[in-house]
Amino acid sequence: MRALLGLGVNKTEIRQINILTYMLSFDAVLPAIASHYAKQQAFRDDGLCWGAYTHGQPSGVCIAEDIGNVRTIHTIAVNENFRRRGVCRSLLDECIQTAATEYIALKYVPETSNDYFDVFLKKCGFTVSPFQKSAVVSVSEQSKAEWDGFMNRRGGKLLKRLHDKGYRAVSFTDAEKDILDTLYAEMGVKFPSNLDPRKCPNEVINSSSFITMVHGRPTAYCVSSTADSGQTAIIEYMASSANYRGTGAFLLCLASSIEGLKNKSRKVAFAYSERNQNLPSLFISGIFSDMTVKAVNHYAISNHK
Length: 305
Fold this sequence. Notes:
The protein is an alpha+beta fold.
């Protein structure tokens, strides 16, 4: 534990905490997204969580995980009653100073060109680089009609050809254990290891996450997740097997995910790497007229001891 003094009389103390302390002291005073990450990510064997106490009151939390030579910060959240008192900086300092990794990093989506947290991270010494983009579509009668129009004009025909060849989509909820075991065994072999569905930091929506199968083998998948209890669904961790790229197998699981989400969520976000623009080509080529594309930045700082 380290005692850190903020400006003036704002005394903040940082302590590493466990799940019981979090649930008893922090769960009710922090945003729901922080609560989700605390429960899903921070309290695994390799998870880390620090709690901030300002004048003895729970005021903030930092949740991170050491992966290889990088300490990845999943979230920093500060109670609105304690903001602009140095709580965030104290949490960030503790996370950096206790790291044995070479780098400390996090992802963040700036809302404006002068975003406060973006400016704050740069002042703290973080360098920024583009990581991926997120295309956000509001679920409305218009966007549903646009999707249905695409499926009637083109998508439906492609899916029929796949079905005729024996392809089928199965949800993560309905997939039998041997299907999931086969999929996970092929991570790093036929599928990219960095897109392993088990590493998704958000809450996975299993009923709207699909695997495309043919001849008993997984050929493609896309994972739907949420960080706000389902209000916004994020279609991410999208990949095709090296042996089935260009076959249309990916469209089958993507279309199944969209169909499963269009009547459940208020927004659907498609997350994709800027270096892999072929995957989002379906939805950035004119299907949806009401779409906002946001940049997801990667922030990193070297850990010089």
